[in-house]
What does this fold into?
Amino acid sequence: MDQERFKAIKIIMQRAQMNNCPVSAVKTTVYRDVVSGKKVFVNEFQNHGEFTVHSMSVRISCFDENIKLVGTIKDYKYQDVFATPGEEFGGNKIIACPNETINSFALEVTHVELEAGYFWDEAIRKIQNHEEESQVAVEMAPEISVEEAPTISENTHVMPETLEEEIFSDEISAHDKDVSITAMFENHETAENKTLEDATTEKKIILDENGSNEPVANMVEETPQEPKEMPQEPVETPQNQEETAQKTEETLAQTSDARESEESSEQQKGKKKKDKKEKKEKKPLPGPVKFLITLFIIAVLGIIAYMALDKYHKYTDYNRGAAYMANGNYEYAINVYTRLGSYEDSAALLAEAQKAYADSLLNAGQYEAAIAEYAKTAGQEEKIKECYNAWVLHLCEEKKNQEALELLQNAGVEFDAETVAHVKYQIGKSLYEEKDYKDAIIYLSETDGYNDSKNLIDDSYYQLGLELLNKGSYDQAMETFEKIKNYKDTAEQITKVNYLRGKNCMESASYEEAIRCFEQITDYEDSASLIQQCYYQQACSYLNGTDYEKAMEYFKLAQDYEDSSDKYNEALYAYLIEAMKTEVTQETMDLLNELPKNYEDSAAIIKTLKKYVDHVGEYKWTTSNDKEINEQGGFEDPVIVKLSYSDGNVNFTVDGHPVDLKLFTYKSDTTSDTYTMLNTTTITRTFNGKIHTYKKVIEE
It folds into this structure.
């Protein structure tokens, strides 16, 4: 098609052909001929059957912009098509638009000629084979073949002004106007157009002009005559019943006269006597009976007219529904097909219209209404799911995050994984932009790496960590930064958090925690000095709490900080004084020697304890002068020697019994058990007059 000459102004998608037709209408494109300024249109079809299409006829219903039926091109013939199965055709047939008011078209395939003598017709609605018949001339709308289009010049008249009246009839503009029965159909035979027969009686009489009951003509033969075809009658009304009855009588009389005139004179003479006898025997019908017959005839004609008119209404509504569908007025089409009920394939077209209407609502973004429409047609679960997916995505684009989330949670359908990820991403991103980093992390973490969610999560942690750091929530800030150690300058921020957190702990006297913070950043600012300060303060805290051993440990760690050394000696002395009340060991003596000379009374304590400390320890049995004891293996329990000191007093015990410090001996009240300290490594035990020797266990 010459694209410069013909400019497309509208594309109308046609509904699929029903009733087993092998050809379906695809679309109609309306063009404007820039040369003549007139409208033309092109219909496109597709062969979805099994045979090659040779030719076909279509009925084209034409509608104005208000979807009013303007007229119909009864049979437009597509010759020499030769479309193979699956092939599209018709695009080279340019048809002149009957007038400029026409805005849309509805197509119906009426007859298709196929290869090998097969054909399809709307009357039988299935493919059959037939013998070749003579080609019947079909009235066609003017067309312009692309191949035969005349050369454009100033003197060339390309398009006809109008179509011929026998091809395009616009006398039917609306179904609510008065129309004749014969004008209601365009090549549709109906049972209502058959000749009316008298079904009430086999004998007919003719009334005289005065309406008397006397016979005025010969009786009709009892054998039923072949009825004469009667012309289509207009619809009768009760107001002209009398006139109709009179016309009926005249018609019957004329019929009777005609039959009598055909009889030969000989037959009349032969029957004269018989007729006289029949006249005497037959009686005329009463007036009420004749009136009832007339009413019956009128009623039959009325029923025929009503059925014809009803069929016409349905036919025009059917085409109007197709036009509504072609123009995208699906709501009107739904109303029409609902009203048509089971007429033709209206039920299938209703479902098609409902789906198309739902599709239009979906495309228009009216998702809730689209879901309601899809629900009216079975098998639309996937489309309903598509609506919900589009709806929730639209809410995200509108920044209606809460509504999108509620729909996602409460819709009752399984959303696409990508849709869920996109929604969570959009919500998380919006929260990130609103600096609600904590909630942003929650939603972005559920996107499974969608888009740049990983970067947004890391930055959300980073920004959240900075917020917590600035608010002094050091523990939470540290926990947050720990999740993204390698992001940006997070390592530096962690160092800063440790420093500030350590100082904060010092202010709250949580020196142990402060020490843990500073130990990780000893090279940062004055952290090393602060650690020494924390050790000192913590040692003082232990000293004041009489935990002398811990105080000694931390004063040692504080090294030269302030008077840490003096404080250490103070803690050590207090520790030893307290410890010696329980036991004095060689280790105690070593610690006493750590104290400066003449520190308090440490020198006197050391001098006093030196005489006894070497005897402290555990002694095990070695020998005995008792043969029986030796044979039994001796004594298993060791002898324990202990030393304690308190307020200048020395307490020396053997197996818990005080020992005479001067003699280094212990005697029981019965003198049956006596211990004697021979030297720092040997003890003798006298039991029942026999001596047993114990040696000190020397630890290496």
Remarks:
- DSSP finds 20 helices and 20 strands in the chain.
- The mean pLDDT is 79.
- Residues 287-326 form the longest helix (40 residues).
- The first strand starts at residue 6 and ends at 13.
